[in-house]
Amino acid sequence: MTVVERIGEGLARQSNRRKAIxxxxxxxxxxxxxxxxxxxxxPGALADHCGYVTEGDCTCNPPYGLYCRRMDASYCSGAACSxxxxxxxxxxxxxxxxxxxICQWTSEYGTPITGYYQCCDCNCYGQQxxxxxxxxxx
Length: 138
What we know:
By secondary structure, this protein is of the alpha+beta class. The protein has two domains: about 1-35; about 40-135, no CATH class. The protein has helices at about 5-15, 15-35, 70; strands at about 55, 75, 80, 85, 95-100, 105, 110-125, 125-135. Strands 1, 4, 5, 6, 7 and 8 form a six-stranded mixed sheet that branches. It has a two-stranded antiparallel sheet with strand order 2-3. β2 and β3 (about 80) form a beta hairpin. The longest helix is centred in the first third of the chain and has 21 residues, at about 15-35. Residues about 25-30 and about 35-50 have low confidence and may be disordered.
């Protein structure tokens, strides 16, 4: 057996398919989770790539009308659940996050503002609520 064959045989014996599949699965889960919360593209382009968009509705409409920040400011990091809260898919959508429709608002100075809300349903210590973040598009 040549040196190259021995090295190849040694590498083949050290590789573990189960471990490789677990690592690939963990990486895929991480990418999907990151996309759900932050989006892979720039925030302005996210509305075109949301898993769900509530057409005609410019707000998040949280579970039972409760935003998590009202209970404790640490429960949200933008639209992401944080501070001991976790994503809750039981109330609405798979992945627990969605986007509102793109709408135009008028600022307090009379200038138009266009954008949408990124919204996520959370469960904070047994209480369902939502986190949201305004994403300006223009």
